[in-house]
Amino acid sequence: MAKRKYYVVWEGHMPGIYDSWEACQRQVAGFPQAKYKSFDTRAEAEKAQKNNYWQYVQGNNPPEKKEKIPRSAILRDSMAVDAACSGNPGDMEYQGVHISSGKQIFHVGPLEEGTNNIGEFLAIVHALALLKRQNRPDMPIYTDSRNAMLWVKAKKCNTKLEQTPRNKKIFELIDRAENWLAMNKYNNPIIKWETADWGEIPADFGRK
Length: 208
Hints:
By secondary structure, this protein is α/β, with parallel strands linked by helices. 32% of the residues lie in helices and 24% in strands. It is built from seven helices and eight strands. Helix 4 (116-133) crosses helix 5 (146-154) and helix 4 crosses helix 6 (168-183).
């Protein structure tokens, strides 16, 4: 039986002490520069919560080895999104998959002359819009792209790709996605898929 840990969230959606990684993850996912750490006992966590975060991550002690996040931490009733691109730029497509059932929820493409980062961005916004229509404001969305997470937070597809007649459709989708982000609020947590600990994201196209 795995030893229970307690998680202090100093900076997150709702700071506090949480008694599971799943509960902690909901508070730090998508929060810029979230500050949190695990402790072996609640007493240690309560003491740490009253002190400064940096006291526990900096100083003369050697840096702690990053804890491996168990697969049991994956929120099963959630959606995973991913993109694939044959070339840079190249034919690009993206999809969303329900993690628990493995069912494909949506698929778009291939579209000419795109990039993987654009596809990752569009996939997240597509998932957000779909879940809003389905009145699923709490369903988490997993992505393995930090760039896409930052772009969605900024409500801007920060691509350097230039528009051409061939990729006009992609730029129409980008405009639509940016407009949706500007006009809509959402509560769905956007969570980084920990590929090193969990393997490839379920929405992966398997072309690596």
